[in-house]
């Protein structure tokens, strides 16, 4: 089954390019450490998911590019054309002359309705190229105007027009400071709207990835390209094919559907995050060896101590004793910063995956009490190595990991809202104070729900 | 891509405008080596086939034939505009873009605003409409004028209202040159106060500049150039230090170097909208991020580095100096000290070989020394444009919405009061039809209201930053 990607705004388009480039180069990488036959099956599966094959054999990304100004899309198109390996469909682009100016209201209330038909037509054309559709993957930031405002509008429209298809939004969480001044307003408006119409929100925080670039990848002068490549690596390791049944060469058909089934058991909880281990520069990788036991021990500690990367692990954090009551568990997690999960999925790629023991992730103490233990944890595997990593573990998790950043953003937006600063910029385009209040209410509810796991 | 139209009014406006067009041409020539008319050039220039008569000559693609500035030149004297038309830039303008008179406004805001305003309203509108029609997607008018004189101040602010009525969706960015304390125009406090009211009401963003600050910056550059140690390393032809270098051999007028700084300000302000970069900043993002309340739209600007060395790779230490300098009071284009006042918002627009990690490091480094208003503790907006200014490897434009602009306004009000108390020169204004004393009182109370808003913000400076009680939800 195929996934149609919609990339919106400067951020969405820049990341989208890196994602497709990673998917392509990984599936055509000769260091897959597996048999030729298996490699072919892997390639075919990746192609079915993300690329269309033209008659001349060139792969075309199953993507629609949307931006309200032309510069970034032109740049993205020419980058993919220059790569000479895969490309975007020139006809699957939509851009206008004037951007949304960091104004969520402008993206949502002006650009959205004005260009609804053209954009939805492009998406439909892309959908028609798929033999069967798994769902939509929508890449956007939540800080700016186009990705956030128009992104929310388009996601809503997809929900209306393709109500049976799954929608997953890849949302870029802005740096805590220094990107866009009204980013907290734009973020709460985006999140509250997506929470109503998307099935799952997958988050990447710029601050966390920036840190990965500097600490793990050893990059001194970090550019957006570096950041986007780390992000694309994480997404790739999540979306590349894995076996449907252990030991078979049959690859999972419905990646989005399976992800949702495993990770989003309740509509109130749909915030997902990704972690990778190991993650390092190519140079260091050549001199490192890993065991699954070691990697998984660290990955589990990353999960329960809510570390975004290996270096940040706090080894003091322990899972609560299983005898603890719900209330006791709550205070426990607060005290020790224990990160309670709803559901986790571990994806293992590479050498000797059969031998990996995942018992540690099955401990009921890691999870909220209202879900059957059988539904809390899943594992996907493939022997095919990913992106030159001999062994790679990816953890996709629905947990409390975003409560703190979300609480920060809501708090900052609330402080600004109380002074009424910048509100006039939004009311100008039909987003009123009441809309803000609705967003605040919904997000406070989300925070409370996650806190009470 | 969007386009902008520059409206230059009065002697000062036209002189700065002239520098701006010269630099803009040179910048695009340096970036666009193939001579193809592209979207970046189209933001300020039309491409015209001069062999075709009439208006049908605009070409949207292909080779550059003849570039025409998207500009309207207005002056109520002929001197400066004639000089431009006889100078090296004559081909960039044509007579359809000009409005001149011969009598001048006599340093009288009322003459510029009321007399010439009504006299030329139709003609101005027609030229503006014409220039707007020639744009594919007009985003912004840049108005360049001075506050102290008659034409720039009076007619320049008259124009703002016309633009607001006629093009409500197009931004109005105003570069206003404020008179220094020892201004030779005696009535400049009157003119400035009257103009301020119009700026308060009809501008989207105002970039205040004052001559004294520009002069000080030029002196500083000269000291650098002349000091033996640095003399060899300063690029003589960088845009800031040279006068309109490629066209003129030496400083012909003392104001040239100063006007060049202002022209550079406009180039930097628009660079991220014109050229590619990893973090774009369109013009509409400026007011969205920097104007929290409609009235508080005065942005203090600084440009760094004033000079640059010829190295290709950016050594981090010198790069960081560029960020430090941008916050120093010595580098502001108006006499103001942002470090010791309160920030409402701050934008850093970087050009050249600078990455996001450089920006982040410097924001983290400088943040502790700056004070931000309680509800906008993280009021930073940033952009990265990959095209540096001609002759530099990198540059920074900092825009601050900061209460440090207040002293300029208070000083203006004080000078106005001194003059107004004696009713000096008042009759020159009152004899103009439509001018009454109430015009002055309304203008001064409009300014006082603005000062009051800054006062209230300043008063919050010493208060601790507290989180407000949040919405409570039932669990």
Automatic annotation (TrEMBL), chain A:
Residues 47-247 form the Tubulin/FtsZ GTPase domain. One of its GO terms (biological process) is microtubule-based process. GO terms for cellular component: centriole; cilium; cytoplasm; microtubule; nucleus. CDD domains: delta_zeta_tubulin-like. Pfam families: Tubulin (PF00091). Belongs to the tubulin family. This is Tubulin delta chain. The gene is TUBD1.
TrEMBL record, chain B:
It holds the Pfam family Tubulin. The keyword Transmembrane helix does not apply. Keywords: Cytoplasm, Cytoskeleton, GTP-binding, Microtubule, Nucleotide-binding. Residues 279-414 form the Tubulin/FtsZ 2-layer sandwich domain. One of its GO terms (biological process) is microtubule-based process. GO terms for molecular function: GTP binding. The keyword Cytoplasm applies. PROSITE patterns: TUBULIN. Its main location: cytoplasm. GO terms for cellular component: centrosome; microtubule. It is found in: Cytoplasm, Cytoskeleton, Microtubule organizing center, Centrosome. PANTHER family: TUBULIN (PTHR11588). Found in a complex with TEDC1, TEDC2, TUBE1 and TUBD1. Belongs to the tubulin family. This is Tubulin epsilon chain. It comes from Orycteropus afer afer. The lineage of its organism: Eukaryota, Metazoa, Chordata, Craniata, Vertebrata.
């Amino acid at each position: 089954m195929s996934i149609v990607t919609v990339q919106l705004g400067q951020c969405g388009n820049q990341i989208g390019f890196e994602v497709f480039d990673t998917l392509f180069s990984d599936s055509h990488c000769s260091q897959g450490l597996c048999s030729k036959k298996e490699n072919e099956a892997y390639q075919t599966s990746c192609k079915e998911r993300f690329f269309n094959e033209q008659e001349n054999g060139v792969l075309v990304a199953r993507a629609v590019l949307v931006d309200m100004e032309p510069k970034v899309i032109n740049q993205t198109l020419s980058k993919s054309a220059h790569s000479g390996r895969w490309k975007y469909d020139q006809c699957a682009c939509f851009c206008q002359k004037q951007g949304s100016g960091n104004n969520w209201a402008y993206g949502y209330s002006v650009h959205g309705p004005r260009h609804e038909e053209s954009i939805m037509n492009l998406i439909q054309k892309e959908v028609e190229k798929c033999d069967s559709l798994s769902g939509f993957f929508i890449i956007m930031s939540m800080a700016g105007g186009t990705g956030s405002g128009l992104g929310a509008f388009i996601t809503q429209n997809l929900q209306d027009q393709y109500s049976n298809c799954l929608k997953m939004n890849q949302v870029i969480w802005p740096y805590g400071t220094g990107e866009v001044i009204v980013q907290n307003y734009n973020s709460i408006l985006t999140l509250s709207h997506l929470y109503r119409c998307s099935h799952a929100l997958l988050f990447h925080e710029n601050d966390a990835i920036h840190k990965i670039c500097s600490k793990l990848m050893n990059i001194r002068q970090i550019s957006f390209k570096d950041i986007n490549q780390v992000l694309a690596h994480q997404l790739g390791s999540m979306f590349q094919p894995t076996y449907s049944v252990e030991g078979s060469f049959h690859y999972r058909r419905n990646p989005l559907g399976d992800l949702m089934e495993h990770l989003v058991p309740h509509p109130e909880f749909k915030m997902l995050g990704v972690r990778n281990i190991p993650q390092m520069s190519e140079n260091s990788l050549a001199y490192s060896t890993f065991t699954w036991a070691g990697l998984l021990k660290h990955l589990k500690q990353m999960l329960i101590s809510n570390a975004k990367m290996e270096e940040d692990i706090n080894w003091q954090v322990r899972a609560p004793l299983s005898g603890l009551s719900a209330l006791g568990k709550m205070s426990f997690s607060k005290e020790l910063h224990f990160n309670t999960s709803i559901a986790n999925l571990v994806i293992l790629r590479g050498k000797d995956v059969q031998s990996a023991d995942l018992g540690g992730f099955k401990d009921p103490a890691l999870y909220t009490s209202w879900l059957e233990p059988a539904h809390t944890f899943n594992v996907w595997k493939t022997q095919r190595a990913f992106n030159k990593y001999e062994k790679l573990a990816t953890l996709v998790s629905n947990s409390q990991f975003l409560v703190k950043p979300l609480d920060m953003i809501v708090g900052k937006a609330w402080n600004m809202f109380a002074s009424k600063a910048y509100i006039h910029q939004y009311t100008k385009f039909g987003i009123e104070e009441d809309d803000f209040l609705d967003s605040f209410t919904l997000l406070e509810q989300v925070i409370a729900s996650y806190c009470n796991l | 891509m969007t386009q902008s139209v520059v409206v230059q009014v009065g002697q000062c406006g036209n002189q700065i405008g002239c520098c701006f067009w010269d630099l803009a041409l040179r910048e695009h020539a340096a970036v666009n080596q193939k001579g193809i008319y592209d979207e970046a050039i189209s933001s300020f220039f039309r491409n015209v086939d001069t062999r075709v008569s009439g208006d049908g000559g605009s070409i949207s693609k292909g080779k550059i034939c003849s570039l025409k500035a998207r500009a309207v030149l207005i002056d109520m004297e002929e001197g400066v505009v004639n000089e431009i038309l006889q100078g090296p830039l004559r081909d960039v303008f044509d007579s359809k873009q000009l409005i001149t008179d011969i009598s001048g406004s006599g340093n009288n805001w009322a003459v510029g605003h009321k007399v010439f305003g009504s006299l030329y309203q139709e003609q101005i509108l027609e030229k503006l409409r014409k220039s707007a029609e020639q744009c594919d997607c007009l985003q912004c008018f840049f108005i360049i004028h001075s506050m102290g004189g008659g034409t720039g101040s009076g007619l320049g602010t008259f124009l703002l209202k016309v633009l607001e009525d006629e093009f409500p969706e197009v931004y109005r960015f105003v570069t206003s040159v404020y008179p220094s304390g020892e201004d030779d125009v005696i009535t400049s406090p009157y003119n400035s106060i009257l103009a301020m009211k119009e700026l308060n009401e009809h501008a989207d963003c105002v970039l205040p500049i004052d001559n004294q600050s520009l002069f000080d910056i030029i002196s500083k550059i000269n000291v650098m150039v002349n000091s033996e140690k640095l003399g060899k390393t300063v690029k003589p032809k960088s845009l800031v230090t040279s006068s309109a270098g490629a066209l003129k051999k030496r400083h012909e007028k003392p104001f040239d170097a100063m006007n060049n700084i202002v022209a550079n300000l406009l180039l930097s302000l628009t660079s991220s909208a014109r050229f590619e970069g990893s973090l774009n900043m369109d013009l509409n993002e400026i007011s969205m991020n920097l104007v929290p309340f409609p009235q508080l739209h005065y942005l203090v600007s600084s440009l760094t580095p004033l000079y640059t060395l010829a190295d290709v790779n950016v050594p981090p230490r010198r790069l960081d100096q560029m960020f430090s300098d941008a916050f120093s009071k010595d580098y502001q284009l108006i006499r103001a000290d942002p470090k010791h006042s309160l920030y409402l918002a701050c934008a850093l627009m970087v050009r050249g070989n600078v990455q996001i990690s450089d920006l982040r490091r410097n924001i983290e480094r400088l943040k502790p020394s700056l004070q931000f208003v309680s509800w906008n503790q993280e009021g930073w907006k940033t952009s990265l444009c990959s095209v540096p200014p001609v002759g530099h490897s990198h540059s920074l434009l900092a825009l601050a919405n900061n209460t440090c602009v207040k002293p300029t306004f208070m000083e203006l009000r004080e000078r106005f009061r001194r003059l107004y108390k004696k009713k000096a020169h008042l009759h020159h204004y009152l004899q103009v039809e439509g001018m009454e004393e109430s015009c002055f009182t309304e203008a001064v109370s409009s300014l006082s209201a603005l000062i009051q808003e800054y006062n209230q913000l300043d008063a919050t400076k010493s208060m601790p930053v507290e989180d407000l009680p949040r919405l409570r939800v039932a669990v």
